[in-house]
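Issue 218. Parser rejects a valid record. Input:
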Amino acid sequence: MTAHEIDYTIYGEEMQYVEIELDPQEGVIAEAGSFMMMDDGIKMETIFGDGSQKDQGFMGKIFGAGKRLLTGESLFMTAFYNEVVGKKRVSFASPYPGKIIPIDLTEYGGKFVCQKDAFLCAAKGVSVGIEFSRKLGRGLFGGEGFIMQKLEGDGMAFVHAGGTTARKVLQPGEKLKIDTGCIIGFSKGVNYDIELVGGIKNTIFGGEGLFFANLTGPGVVYIQSLPFSRLANRVLAVAPRAVGKSRGEGSILGGLGDLLDGDNSF
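Output the parser choked on:
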């Protein structure tokens, strides 16, 4: 194996974190900001890109880090190494309520494609790159843009998702239609495309957007019930009322009570 072999335990139900056990000289990479805690004896190092290639040179590192900007991620990642004798542990937390999903890349042919903000951490040696969409419609209307993340290698990686997760195994030619934001990721054999929602009433009044994702097997697909974008939109929708004291909340009149009371701040 080129990636480090790591052991792990996932704790919690709705607000999970993953604890990774590192043998001497083993390491793990993580997105900046996902660190939770670690044992004494682990060295933390900020690196360009994912540091999966040791001999890529300075310009190679710059190019690898620059590609991460296209996915909206930081130029830097954080690496953690066990530099002492004995096993040490480091933990990483999910950024919002949901689940952490372990992905053994050897089970998916060495490649797994996921949403650009789904990656949490991985064994040192796993490459975290970008996956360009080959179709214009997928990039313009897919909800994830032209680019998704791809995890490559033969080690363990961990992705996080919102709400409850589902795992679907698609047979060759089998199709699954999903809300674009609900996709966590899929194996490399899955074909991903965008389809227009049919019907004028569905398009105008359906409330589910104009497009959904059409995934065709063979392969494995992971789905989340609560994408962070959907959660954020719901929070923003009530934010103006939540800024001040909302006297109408829980009352019979609701927001109308604020109007009648002369409060038009919302």
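Fixed in the parser; the record now loads. The chain is about 20% helix and 40% strand.
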